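SAMPLE LOG
Freezer: B-3
Tube label: C17
Construct: single chain, 216 aa
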Amino acid sequence: MSCGKEHHHGHEHGHHPIQHAKVGKPIEHFEMKVFDPEEGFFADFSSEKTLAEGKWIVLVFYPADFTFVCPTELADLAEKHEELKKLGCELVSVSTDTEFTHMAWKNDERLLQNVRYKMGADPTGKVSRYFGVYDCDTGLALRGTFIINPEGMLVGSETTYYNVGRNADELVRKMQANTYLKENPNEACPAKWTPGEKTLTPSEIQVGKVYESLNE
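STRUCTURE (predicted):
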């Protein structure tokens, strides 16, 4: 979601409109200030450095600190954080609040007592714009979940409106499938796939015969 004024302003000066991250394409590297609850201090997050460590990056954008649906989502993520870490993920929640507000909210809101992942600050909206979730009318980010593989490619993108919370169970399932397919690139995971279930190996033999492939 981009702001019309920015596009107009950019064209006046001969610049291209803001480019967005696209699924299947490498991301442009970005940095953010974060509050790190595990360490209890502020730090810098760099996508380039994180990917160089061989990690996946999972960004979870949400509208604002000190609101209502947001802490329930972050608490849900906290319950799945260890599973995501074991899958090689660096989980970062992101809003347009500052890292200072993140710290105050984390310390105030009891729902957030188990949050250990980094809380990213995007007060200028630069990162939110790049991932297409910035709402120009409010200055907030929509609910967006983005998965970046260790090679720096965006492989997952999901955006929902303000009033519907997400389910971290599905995020874990997607990451289980993504990490499996990274090790088995010739296969594909069918709907609702979970570890241990049958996968598909796309070929001309399977055209029109997917039922047989999954049920024989």
